[in-house]
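Dear H.,

Thanks for agreeing to be a second pair of eyes. The structure we're designing against is below in token form, covering all 273 positions.
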């Protein structure tokens, strides 16, 4: 029994960074001698073949599906990939999927996401786990009280139906917390290029978030956003971030994660494409 997890396909990012971005050299090295837009699609096509080999229960995409929501060509490329792959993809939104300005969640962005990918938060059962799929941008842009509280109420109401021992996994885009001792030296340039609050929840929001699950068995949180692989933890919860299937921003290659369930145990190996 397995899940394949991808994140940060972020179609359009590589070309934009070559033309205008601060990651120009990374994008050029990554795309090598082909057009960066072709490299993004090439990785999607590789993943289609790998999915057929692995035959997972389903796929999870933890956000940043496209780089800009007002670029219909990039959306069309992703839709073609999703239609061809032959397995259900459960999505959660990244910050680039829910706002014209990727730093700010907007109603326009939410409407775009919901129109093309469905609900931005939901849950279902898989083996002996309950899986929560959350919109982490609502924790980053917590100033919008209505949007923030809608998701908080959903979490509270859903948890009421579970025993304290129920095993829980969360999938969302932003890691809620990074313990700085877990940041590899090769990742520091990227992570410290911005304030940590860009990558993770503010401290008070992180504490509120974990308080929701204090009487429950939250074992794992799987995220994206960083474009690199990182494992950290908060209290007894493991937080696993996966490198991008699109353009990576550290030494980790583009790839995907296989989440395997066997005899009550979970493994989560990263694989390059």
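And this is the sequence the design step returned. I haven't edited it by hand at all.
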């Amino acid at each position: 029994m397995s899940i394949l997890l991808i994140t940060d396909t972020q179609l359009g990012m590589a070309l934009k960074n070559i033309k205008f971005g601060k990651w120009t050299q990374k994008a050029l090295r990554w795309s090598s001698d082909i057009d960066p837009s072709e490299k993004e699609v090439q990785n999607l096509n590789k993943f289609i073949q790998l999915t057929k080999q692995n035959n997972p229960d389903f796929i999870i995409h933890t956000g940043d599906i496209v780089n800009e929501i007002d670029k219909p060509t990039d959306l069309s490329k992703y839709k073609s990939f999703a239609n061809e792959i032959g397995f259900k993809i459960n999505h959660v939104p990244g910050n680039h999927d829910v706002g014209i300005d990727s730093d700010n969640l907007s109603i326009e962005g939410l409407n775009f996401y919901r129109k093309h990918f469905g609900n931005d938060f939901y849950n279902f059962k898989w083996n002996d786990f309950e899986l929560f799929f959350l919109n982490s941008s609502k924790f980053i842009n917590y100033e919008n009280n209505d949007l923030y509280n809608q998701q908080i109420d959903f979490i509270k109401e859903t948890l009421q139906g579970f025993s304290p021992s129920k095993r829980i996994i969360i999938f969302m885009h932003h890691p809620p917390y990074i313990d700085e001792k877990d940041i590899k030296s090769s990742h520091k340039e990227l992570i410290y290029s911005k304030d940590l609050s860009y990558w993770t929840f503010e401290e008070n929001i992180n504490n509120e978030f974990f308080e929701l699950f204090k009487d429950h068995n939250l074992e794992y949180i799987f995220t994206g956003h960083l474009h690199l692989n990182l494992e950290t933890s908060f209290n007894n919860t493991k937080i696993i971030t996966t490198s991008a299937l699109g353009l990576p921003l550290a030494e980790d290659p583009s790839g995907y994660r296989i989440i395997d369930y066997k005899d009550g145990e979970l493994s989560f190996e990263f694989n390059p494409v």
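Two observations from my side: The chain has a mean pLDDT of 93. The chain has one domain: 2-259.

Warmly,
E.
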